[in-house]
Design brief:
Strand content: 15-25%
CATH architecture of the largest domain: 3-Layer(aba) Sandwich
Shape: globular
Number of helices: 12
Low-confidence stretches: 1-26
Number of domains: 2
CATH class of the largest domain: Alpha Beta
Radius of gyration: 23 Å
CATH topology of the largest domain: D-Maltodextrin-Binding Protein, domain 2
Number of strands: 11
CATH superfamily of the largest domain: Bordetella uptake gene, domain 1
Largest sheet: 6 strands, mixed
Strand order of the largest sheet: 2-1-3-10-4-11
Distance between the termini: 63 Å
Helix content: 40-55%
């Protein structure tokens, strides 16, 4: 009787182990078997939301499962990122985020997770650069005149929130030129753009989608571009690099993340799906029309994306610490 019980127990244990192991292996090998949620840590209609929805449909086609986009805004992008960082590392909860998440790694002093350790890069998505623009009534028509203007008097610099890329670009400009800027914080780029157009603030760092139409319509001045090379959209606008400020190269990028610890085969499958999406002419057209570019092929692997992300965290940590910028809550 005792032997019977022991044998039955042993069989039960062996069976449970085999079922568990089989399920684990099947889950990884057959991934995905259900809907994938792609979190975007911004409101609907923002750049991250647009990027997420652009790739989600194409990824759904190659993965054979729906990839649904869920907006989780708030906390400067931290709330949505935290949800993914703390999710099960099974490939069913993903995140699309932008440059701000690398800045937040050193900017936010009280967060519930470690951005560098708790998120794994699946792949880089797209990148763009911004223009330094000024209100039409500003008494400076080009960069040299603007520099002289900024050195003589306080100049207001609008941005979409402390720690946002538009804020950090202004910090770099002030740091590189030695001028003093009076930073004015807004709840997003839209309100800041409205005040530039209305002549209520002096300067703004704005992406192509917002800046180029206003520049071409003659509603604002344009002083410089923040890329390595001039923008094909406005090839007459000099880069800050060629103006003598090589440190003021401020790319705006999006990347796809999974929780750290997600199995390598799942990361690889997601990366392959992402690459196929980025090669789709419909995606290329949508991004090009939005003034953004896909990263070059040598940067599209998960490993290359992780290396880039880590370098961005380190770069912004230095800038944040040098300028004593922090968000305590």
């Amino acid at each position: 009787m005792n032997y019977t019980i022991k044998i039955a127990a042993a069989i039960a244990i062996a069976f449970s182990i085999n079922v568990s192991d089989g399920k684990s292996a099947d889950t990884t090998a057959n991934y995905p078997t259900r809907v994938i949620t792609l979190i975007t840590a911004s409101a609907a209609g923002g750049p991250a939301d647009i990027a997420a929805r652009t790739i989600a449909e194409r990824m759904s086609e190659t993965l054979g499962q729906h990839v649904i986009v869920e907006n989780v805004p708030g906390g400067g992008g931290i709330i949505g990122a935290a949800r993914v960082a703390q999710a099960a590392p099974d490939g069913y909860t993903l995140l699309i985020h932008q440059t701000g998440i690398a800045i937040s790694a050193s900017l936010h002093r009280k967060i519930t997770f470690d951005i560098k350790k708790d998120l794994a890069v699946v792949g880089l998505v797209n990148t763009s650069n911004s223009f330094l623009i000024g209100k039409k009534s500003l008494a400076a028509a080009n960069w040299n005149e603007l520099l002289a203007y900024m050195k003589k008097q306080p100049t207001s610099f609008a941005h979409p929130g402390v720690g946002a890329l538009g804020h950090m670009a202004g910090v770099l400009i002030a740091q590189s030129t030695g001028v003093k800027l009076d930073f004015v914080s807004y709840r997003g780029l839209g309100p800041a753009m409205n005040d530039i157009l209305g002549g209520h603030v002096d300067l703004l760092w704005a992406g192509a989608v917002s800046a180029v139409p206003a520049i071409k319509a003659g509603k604002v001045h344009v002083y410089a571009y923040g890329g390595e090379e001039r923008s094909p959209l406005l090839p007459d606008v000099p880069t800050l690099k060629e103006l003598g400020y090589p440190n003021v190269i401020v790319p705006f990028w999006h990347a796809l993340f999974a929780p750290a610890g997600t199995p390598a085969p799942i990361i690889e499958k997601l990366n392959t799906s992402l690459r196929k999406a980025l090669a789709d002419p419909r995606v290329v057209k949508a991004f090009t029309q939005g003034g953004v570019e896909i990263f070059p092929p040598n940067m599209l692997s998960a490993a290359a994306g992780q290396a880039f992300f880590n370098s961005e965290i380190d770069r912004w940590k230095t800038i944040v610490n040098e300028n004593d910028i922090a968000i305590e809550q």
